[in-house]
Amino acid sequence: MSPAARFSSLRAMASLSSGASLGRGLSPRCPEAPALGRAPRRSSIGLGSFRRSYVAAAFANENREFVIVGGGNAAGYAARTFVEHGMADGRLCIVSKEAHAPYERPALTKGYLFPLDKKPARLPGFHTCVGSGGERQNPEWYKEKGIEMLYEDPVTSIDIDKQTLTTDSGKLLKYGSLIIATGCTASRFPEKIGGNLTGVHYIRDVVDANSLISSWEKAKKLVVVGGGYIGMEVAAAAVAWKLDTTIIFPENHLLQRLFTPSLAQRYEQFYQDNGVKFKKGASIKHLEAGSDGRVCSVKLEDGSTIEADTVVIGIGAKPAVGPFERVGLNTSVGGIQVDGQFRTKIPGIFAIGDVAAFPLKMYDRIARVEHVDHARRSAQHCAKSILSAQTDTYDYLPYFYSRVFEYEGSPRKLWWQFFGDNVGEAVEVGSFDPKIATFWVDSGKLKGVLLESGNPEEFQLLPKLARSQPTVDTTKLWNASSVEEALEIAQKSLTVEPAA
Fold first, then answer.
1. Which end of the chain is more exposed for a tag (fewer CB within 10 A), N or C?
2. Is the model's pLDDT at 498 over the cut of 70?
3. Residue 440 near residue 422 (C-beta atoms within 8 A)
4. Between these two residues, 467 and 12, which has the higher pLDDT value?
């Protein structure tokens, strides 16, 4: 056979191999990836050998069997699962826009923002997977496990047919199976109303948090825009810096999507007792700049003005679908549509974490969850589905939590957890000090429960209640004299057999 004929035959074989890999989707092996990931051997094939060497050199990633795009928490937990299955070494590549190995992102608006005398969190202290009690995966860990890390070079385009990615720097990457773990980006104020002024901050990564800390070292007046998790956590940290802090939001009370009005009022009072001011039901017209170009005030639609030398915008986030729109988006909740094993409509491509729109099995609806717990669990479930015979549908129980005022010298540390669904009648029990609980009951079934300042045993009960959805007597809950009594009533309902 002539060299040209040999090359034609090899190219046809490679095409078939690539097509087979794409069609299988869940197959853990990509036939052409090992050859592409290693230097080709010299042989008597001649032109074919030269051509294969040229093709291999065209790809910037040595590890091509599995590629994860995104360097956040989900990527870190997926990497751990690959290692546990013995499928990471020489096979897994992670492409990140950040300069750091994956870390536990919730720390950025909690312990990371504490002043130096309050023992703030710092890397490498909160690298993935310490948030769930696992081994700290610092950059050396990835090297030791044979995982290829490409830092500060986000993916800008994908060629689905050729199974290739292009990065911002122009690198061409090859993949067998692709996991999209790009997370979210912070929702920003438009530039025309001052969203990009000096002194205006958004928090999604370590660079953002470092920039805010630098501002706080010289700041006196802080305005936090948004009454959700970010706003509450940032304002609590600002109290430790002794900043004149105001929270502005358009809703009637804090964390409106979860807190009841009465529960929110208790939190608001605690913040006010610590010097934080609120401007509720307010709309911002624009941010004003001083003569030095730095933000100096916030102008509201009602004509009033609030002075500020630093502003933090915490008004939500958007799924970072980036170049992956062709993979298939969900138009109702946003993000990339996946099934119960995090498979997209394209065989061999998966999406996990904040960016994934997945079936929320226990409530029979499509959801997109922006929370670290889901990032961890979805990553592990997806990786196991790819690497093993696991065919179970992801069965997630919604979980949210926050911890504020945890620094030394705080008059009281607040920690609450919520499991389930906040639908139906809300039954509030307790006085907030020392603890408070809210139970959501719909058609006699306990759907969700929030507990503030509980002990470990009480917190462990919450997911059992939310997942079991037992029948409870709301009158008994309302009449409970304490949180402990209410939790005991709910716990006993778990053992009651349903009527025939």
1. C
2. no
3. yes
4. 467
Q: Are strands 436-442 and 221-225 parallel, antiparallel or unpaired?
A: unpaired
By residue count, the chain amounts to 500
Sign for the pseudo-dihedral over CA of 131, 135, 140, 143: negative
- 316-367 pLDDT, tens digit per residue, is 999 999 999 999 999 999 999 999 999 999 999 999 999 999 999 999 999 9
* Residue 58, pLDDT score: 87
> How many whole angstroms separate alpha carbon 74 and alpha carbon 352?
7
pLDDT tier, 389 (very low <50, low <70, confident <90, very high otherwise): confident
Quote the CA–CA distance of 120 and 117 in Å, as a whole number. 8
For 317-363, strand residue ranges (E) read 317-319, 336-337, 349-351, 356-360
**Which tens digit of pLDDT belongs to each residue from 106-121?**
999 999 999 999 999 9
The confidence score (pLDDT) of residue 497 equals 54
Mode of pairing for the β-strands spanning 425-430 and 436-442: antiparallel
Copy the structure tokens of residue 186.
Answer: 């912070």
Ranges of H-type helices in 292-397: 372-387
Tell me how far apart the alpha carbons of residues 319 and 321 are, in angstroms, rounded to a whole number.
6
Confidence (pLDDT) at 24: 30
Distance CA 393, CA 413 (A): 38
Tokens for 226, please give them: 């948004």
Residue 176 CA to its chain's centroid (Å): 25
Helix (H, G, I), strand (E, B) or coil at 299: strand
Q: What DSSP line would sit under 415-474, residue for residue?
A: EEEEEE---SEEEEEE-SSS-EEEEEEETTEEEEEEEES--HHHHHHHHHHHHH--B--H
List Cβ neighbours of 146 (8 Å cut-off, separation of 6 or more).
Answer: 63, 88, 89, 90, 91, 92
Span 457-485, average pLDDT: 97
Q: Where are the alpha helices (DSSP H) in 59-173?
A: 73-84, 139-144
3-class state of residue 68 by DSSP: strand
